[in-house]
Design brief:
This protein is mostly helical. The chain has one domain. It is built from 14 helices and no strands. It has helices at residues 5-31, 33-43, 46-69, 79-95, 100-111, 117-147, 154-180, 184-187, 189-196, 202-213, 220-247, 256-272, 282-293, 298-332. Helix 1 runs antiparallel to helix 14. It is globular and about 60 Å long. The model has no long low-confidence stretch (mean pLDDT 84).
Length: 333
């Protein structure tokens, strides 16, 4: 009897891709192909600025990761190496349905050329913790701003309330964990071994737990420094959205508040649908719906999502090239 697991996974991936492509086509048709083409022409050389802002976002997270890698070592992961690893990891995460299960291990592997495997793993985990906290703050801010609008549909109010409850619950659990320091990862060693299909060291997982819990004992300056870089990630994203909206038809009257709400929506979609490669069709539908709600018109939101998709593809192309280069050098070494 043959194993039908891989075939089943392939069929599911194809079904998801087909559904996403259908959503994309529907969104583009509703927005109007002529409108989208005109918008892209209007961007002109500004598309380079959009790509640059996308690279800046990668760079600030690389800086945050590099700082986290120096928590217990005099020398950590160099900034340029962290930047390359994040570009490569993001490309791998977007290209496969594995999402974070592909991007983060790739960063660990590339980072351990400069620090130990344990240090690379713990620094990636800690930086992701800071990033997750910043995303939660971003979503809470977006929900608060959105609920100030009188014309918010009841459905969005319920979604917003759900985000607030989930964020507060997550914060309470995080506070409890840092106080009680439960041995969660080490108890999951058998599960990790099955997922990796190789033995997992309980001692290594315990060390990872300790490195995460020890964050609360970091100097205040280091905590603030890492948090600042994570905040800059979101600031660059809002700037990117605002720039694109101001350059396309229907978005010229948009404000920074509108850009903030559009980016909050995009961040929520990224978190919720990371398992879908490139969130095909999902970005366009979500962005178009929120831009319609904000009075910018659905075409502006769909165009915004498409422009950002082009930026992602360009940066991911660079990431794939860097990943191939890293594998070539690893094979030679």
């Amino acid at each position: 009897m043959t194993d039908s697991g891989p075939l089943r996974k392939s069929l599911v991936s194809l079904a998801i891709a087909a559904a996403g492509l259908a959503l994309l086509v529907i969104s583009v048709r509703q927005a109007g192909w002529d409108t989208i083409v005109t918008s892209f022409r209007g961007l002109g050389p500004w598309i380079l600025v959009v790509v640059f802002l996308g690279a800046v976002r990668m760079a600030v997270r690389a800086r945050a990761w590099a700082l986290c890698s120096r928590a217990h070592h005099d020398t950590g992961i160099p900034f340029h190496a962290a930047f390359v690893a994040i570009l490569a990891g993001d490309a791998l995460g977007n290209l496969t349905p594995l999402g974070l299960l592909a991007s983060e291990p790739a960063k660990v592997v590339m980072g351990r050329r400069h620090v130990s495997t344990a240090a690379s793993l713990s620094s990636v985990a800690v930086e992701n913790g800071f990033y997750t906290a910043s995303v939660a703050a971003m979503l809470l801010g977006g929900v608060w701003v959105m609920l100030q609008r009188a014309d918010v549909p009841p459905v969005l109010e319920q979604v917003g309330e759900g985000i607030v409850v989930a964020a507060l619950a997550g914060g309470i659990v995080a506070l409890w964990m840092f106080r009680a320091r439960p041995a969660v990862l080490s108890r999951l060693a058998p599960l990790v071994a099955r997922l990796r299909q190789q033995p997992a060291s309980a001692e290594a997982l315990t060390a990872l737990e300790h490195s995460i819990y020890d964050v609360v004992h970091w100097p205040g300056a280091r905590l603030a420094h890492v948090a600042m870089w994570e905040a800059l990630f979101h600031a660059a994203a809002v700037a990117e959205v605002w720039l694109i909206l101001r350059l396309i038809p229907g978005g010229q009257g948009s404000t920074l508040t509108d850009a903030f709400l559009m980016e909050t929506t995009g961040r929520f979609i990224t978190v919720a649908f990371k398992f879908i490669p490139y969130r095909l069709g999902i970005d366009e539908v979500g962005s178009g719906s929120v831009s319609q709600l904000l009075g910018l018109g659905a075409p502006a939101g769909v165009t915004l999502a498409l422009v950002r998709r082009v930026r992602i593809l360009l940066l991911n192309a660079a990431g794939v090239a860097l990943l191939a280069r890293f594998r070539l050098h690893s094979a030679v070494d």
